[in-house]
Amino acid sequence: MATALQTAFDEPTIKPAAPKTHAETMVVRFAGDSGDGMQLTGGQFTLSTALAGDDFSTFPDFPAEIRAPQGTTFGVSAFQINFGANGIETAGDEPDVLVAMNPAALKTNVVDLRPGGLVIIDSGEFTARNLAKAGYTANPLEDNSLAKWQVMAFDISRQTLEAVKPFGLGNKEALRCKNMWTLGLALWMFDRERDPLIEWLKSKFSKNPVLAQANAAALNAGHAYGETAELDGPLKQFAVDASSSAPGFYRTVTGGESLALGLVAGAKLANLPMFFGSYPITPASPILHALARLKEFGVTTFQAEDEIAAIASAIGASYAGSLGVTSSSGPGIALKGEAMGLAIITELPLVIVNSQRGGPSTGLPTKTEQSDLYQAVYGRNGDAPLVVIASRSPSDCFEVAIEACRLATQFMTPVMVLTDGYIANAAEPWRVPDMASFAPFPVKFHTEVPAEGRINPYSRDPDTLARVWIKPGTPGLTHRIGGIEKGVKTGNINYEADNHQAMTDIRRDKIANIARHIPLQDVDQGPTSGKLAIVGWGSTYGPIRKGVQRARAKGLDVAHIHIRHIWPLPSNLGELLRGYDKVIVPEMNTGQLKTVLRDQFLVDAKPLNKVSGHPFKISEIEAAIDAALGGASA
Amino acid sequence: MNDMTRITVPKDWETDQEVRWCPGCGDYAILKAVQRTMPEIGTPPEKTVFVSGIGCSSRFPYYMETYGFHTIHGRAPAVATGIKLANPELDVWIITGDGDGLSIGGNHMLHLLRRNLDCQVLLFNNEIYGLTKGQYSPTSRIGTRSPSTPFGSVDRPASPCGFALGAGARFIARTIDTAQKAMPEILKRAHAHKGTSFVEIFQNCIVYNDAVFDAFTDKKNAPMNQLNVVHGQPLVYGAGTKGIGFDPATMTLSVIDIVDGDVSGVLVHDEYNRVQAQMLIDMEFGPFPIALGVIWCSPAPSFEAAVVEQNKTASAGKPTDLNALIRKGQSWEIAAKDFHTV
Fold this sequence. Notes:
The complex is a heterodimer.
Chain A: E1 21-23, E2 25-33, H1 38-51, E3 55-61, E4 76-84, E5 97-100, H2 103-109, E6 118-122, H3 128-133, E7 150-154, H4 156-164, H5 171-175, H6 178-189, H7 195-204, H8 209-229, E8 238-240, E9 248-254, H9 255-269, E10 274-278, H10 285-292, E11 299-303, H11 307-319, E12 323-328, H12 330-335, H13 337-345, E13 350-356, H14 373-378, E14 387-390, H15 396-411, E15 414-420, H16 421-425, E16 427-431, E17 480-482, H17 497-513, E18 530-537, H18 541-553, E19 558-563, E20 565-567, H19 573-578, E21 580-587, H20 592-601, E22 605-609, H21 618-628
Parallel strand pairs in A: 1-8, 2-5, 5-6, 6-7, 10-11, 10-12, 12-13, 13-15, 14-15, 18-19, 18-21, 21-22
Antiparallel strand pairs in A: 2-4, 3-4, 9-16, 14-20
Helix pairs in contact in A: 1-6, 4-8, 6-8, 7-8, 9-10, 9-15, 11-13, 18-21
Chain B: H1 26-41, E1 48-52, E2 67-70, H2 76-86, E3 91-97, H3 98-104, H4 106-115, E4 119-125, E5 128-129, E6 135-136, H5 160-167, E7 171-176, H6 182-192, E8 196-202, H7 214-217, H8 222-225, E9 226-229, E10 236-237, E11 242-247, E12 252-257, H9 274-282, E13 290-297, H10 303-315, H11 322-326, E14 331-334
Parallel strand pairs in B: 1-2, 1-3, 3-4, 4-8, 7-8, 9-13
Antiparallel strand pairs in B: 5-6, 7-13, 10-11, 11-12
Helix pairs in contact in B: 1-6, 3-4
């Protein structure tokens, strides 16, 4: 455990450090070519941030191409982290510090840098060729175009080559250590311990100790450079406030990890083995990767031949008595549509995870969006209702996944979990709960053979309307189910008009009835009635929370409501919304929840939309509040 | 009552549902053969699952007093894979047709066969789309006139057994809907085979494609046009007057006239020989008869067994404490109060 920020420093050649600049929070962005290892750098910086006891939120932003042509603007990969004292809810609006590893990274990222912010540049990459590739006609390091920022440009490439010289690496391999040099510099800037990183390098390169040593040397060199360069440049050390979060056991978690763990926990609470059928797709694959390693928890993973086989196998597994789960992103969810209808009409439990990305079609595979809400709620043939719930942050995925397992198994229905690319890849500290704090919901399979006649597989629990779940293998209860409409009273094929009406009504009522079995909608922040409610869902939680906080600090009458249960909606939501003069729904789509709310409750919900592939900025939410309430303060 | 030794009779495998295929449909005969064979196989009905896709043949599960899942078009292999992985003890039968299994569901069939999931596939091939009223199918011969091909189809048909062999199937057999003696034996062999057993059944669609197989199913045509292959026996037909020979120079099969019962030049059927299986499947009908029976059988480890084994090995000795699991990774503890004040 790192101790509080220290001033002592253990490098022998280092002079006493200059006073540090104090900051409550700090936003740092690492940007470079997609081959420069920026995600790795960001990830390791995040771990050191966690170890230093800071609260944080990250935003990895990378191109869809695995290795886009080197030096191009579309090949730029970036990782942003916001860290510091309590209440970090977003990855930050504007970076305070930008690290740009080449001209393309500078060009695409410097515009976001706060005026007066610091940009650290590898001048070694600013060759005529690289400048041309990035579309620069003049060298920005020489034409004064970066005047509104503090610029620290030096030849990181050469520094790195010098540092790793003793290890005899080839030029290409040696330059690969640049990201560790940069990380070393960042560790110095924020006074972080290097030891955990050195340990990590040792284990990462355990099969190639020379590479481990070279990378460690680069890291140390970057760190030492900071100490020296400080004397005559804008580089300085920052003292960032550490978090004073609630006591407890914390770990860093990404949305993908947390969702996978939540599914494992949910299956265990249901007392069922889990079957996870999936087909690789960005940004959903991390869930498959995580679960594939957890076989000891009764998890069977199946990489299917396509999206349809992925869901169909999960349905088969549910039919056979496992908890079937499938996971994808929008395009794959579209392919699964018909099979979802099968799970709905056969009333089998199923969890469908949608890690949303920019659409339509292939859209923006690596960028985030919330534009699959209509698809989730309405996107199937026939009257085909299912449950939709949404997670709002990486750590929230854990509880949401458990809730999905609960609803699926207790109500014999497919449940769609909406998360998104931002949540899937972003990391944040998670105060790890005690599993004993979750009430189990063990499944009871039906085994009782009727005294006379045959079992009706569509006999139901009068309270939940869930049909009986009979595992094949159970003696005396053989029956047939399928996608053709079945008789209410027999479970046999039935095409009669009255029967179809009755079954359609039951399917609708069963889902609507779930509103009685979910929590009432609460108000995250602010009054339960008043001038303005900002209503969000999913990953807009962070920016809305902070935006509303700031507005309230200015004295504005505004509340934040964040919806987890999208379908059915909480039973008190309509009344709650009607208690506000105005309702604004910020969404990373063109207004989908807004439409649902207007339809369901006849409230005059107004949209606030953004579909740039990036999350909302806090300032954008703040501005919308200001505009709605007619100025700075009430 | 529910152990493996319980005796059943064909009647036990019939449901109370009225069978709704067209009168005279070949499906009736197949249903009867399956219901007759199940007691001999001996798996109790509750451990048996029939899974189907969409099409006339796919109504089959509704008529079997077992567990049954009538799924969606082409996806039965995928659903069956989930069932078998979730409970490898279940005896899984997939019922499909030429459209369901080779057109809309061709991809799933490919992967089912390649993975070698332990199950039986009965593909009812009638060379037509019956349930949608008679359009041509992927196995229809060139020139098939149908509502969607009024001037005759122009695309070349797929060979179900050829597809199966190419996909990596380890058991391939072929039979005819009316072959009430041969089919039960093939079904028993298919069931006994560990892995995916692919059985193509020529099935007559009396309404939309009647008599399409008459060239070899008709009583008078059968002897000279059906080659019933038996492992270890010479490949003879035509009441012992014809045999299948092999010309090493051209690497092709030939028809041999058998004189005085001399079968010395006739190939002996070897169901483990994949090359021979390929040639028997590819024989051009007309000059050659159609091969029926177990054409290829070469067992290999089955998919679900490998999955179960790997799940077991990978889990061995690992802790299963959920609290410990969710606490893995980069972690830290914040003590009550006084932590990290700067």
